[in-house]
Amino acid sequence: MDENQIASELKAGIEEAQSLAREQVGAAWQLHLDRVREQLESGWRDSLDRIFAERFADVESRLKEAFEGVTANRLRTCRSEVTEALNQTARRLRSSESKEEWIRTLLEAASPFCAKSAMFSVTSKGLSMGGHPEVPLASAPAFGSAVESKDTVVAVGTPRELSQTISSLLGDASTKKIYLFPVVVRQNAVAVLYAEPGDGVPVDVSALELLTSIAAASIEATETVVVKSPSADLIRISGTAPASPAPTWTDLAKPEQERHLRAQRFARNRVAEMLLHRVRQVRNGRESNNLYGALKEEIEAGREAFRREFIESCPSMVDYFHLELQRTLAKGNSRALGSDYPGPQPVGTSAGTP
């Protein structure tokens, strides 16, 4: 084996190690995102660095064993850089003296994690972006779903999903998967962050979800951005029209809302565990468009646990586990789940899906 071949194989091995590390770090981040959100509400300045150090410690030790410390050293550097950047963003958001400065700060922080971003305020009439006319939620189904579910939404960036007005403002994204991240304050979605991928620039969902959590915490701390109640006339995305009007999120009693939120966290954590502990099977499943075949035992266990814990006891429940499999595991490509994948489980009347 000549030197060029050795160098080529070494380079390929390092790239593979880095790719696997990114997958695992993203999964670990998602698993502990809810804890970070809770910490942000009390003492975020003192606890953020400690949380990152604690959460990344386990991943770091795994990488040391697998990749002889090369990736682990890079991870430590990345952790420090990410923590510092998040602290800087949090400080700037809290010290913003106007809504415009707050939006500018958030968009600057989001720029490394997507190719294009925009911020929309949620008002009683719909969506507002700068000095442009307000857009009714009824004409922007994807935004309406994000506002109602208070969770990340992935959609095709067509005028039908975003509205003709927003598509004209942001440019044609009909061939792309776009991401909408609601900024939730006191159980109300007060703004929505729009993110779009580009050539070689994917959307980092975990990073942007954490940023919007930080943004929400800064609003509650400073009230720089006025919190307004969203429109009661919210809409939902569904494959077929319901026989009777579906209940909206605000129609649900508080305990039922909390059960939906727990179900969403359950789904995110189960899928994140697959990415963290079964990353090679995930990659093989994506390449062969057969994630279900590669992870059948884990997926079936998750489906059964979700059905038993949430679907059977909540008539308005949504199959969030199925949606998370599509969104995160299959990266929005439902065909990647495979032809044998049984699809969503039967549920009651939906109150809105993420």
How would you briefly describe this protein structure?
This protein has helices at residues 3-31, 33-40, 44-67, 70-94, 99-110, 141-149, 159-162, 164-170, 205-222, 254-277, 279-288, 291-294, 296-311, 320-329, and strands at residues 116-122, 127-128, 153-157, 173-185, 188-196. It is an alpha+beta fold. The protein folds into three domains: 3-94, no CATH class; 114-204, GAF domain (Beta-Lactamase, 2-Layer Sandwich); 252-337, no CATH class.
- Helicity range: 55-70%
Provide the domain count: 3
The backbone outline, from C-alpha atoms, is globular
Parts with pLDDT < 50 across at least 5 consecutive residues = 223-246, 349-354
Q: What is the count of helical runs?
A: 14
Could you describe the largest sheet, including whether it forms a barrel?
5 strands, antiparallel
Order of helices and strands: HHHHHEEHEHHEEHHHHHH
Please give the order of strands in the largest beta sheet. 2-1-5-4-3
Radius of gyration: 21 Å
**Mean pLDDT across every amino acid position:** 77
E-strand count = 5
What structural category do the secondary elements indicate? alpha+beta
User: How much β-strand is present in the residues?
Assistant: 5-15%
Distance between the first and last residues' Cα: 52 Å
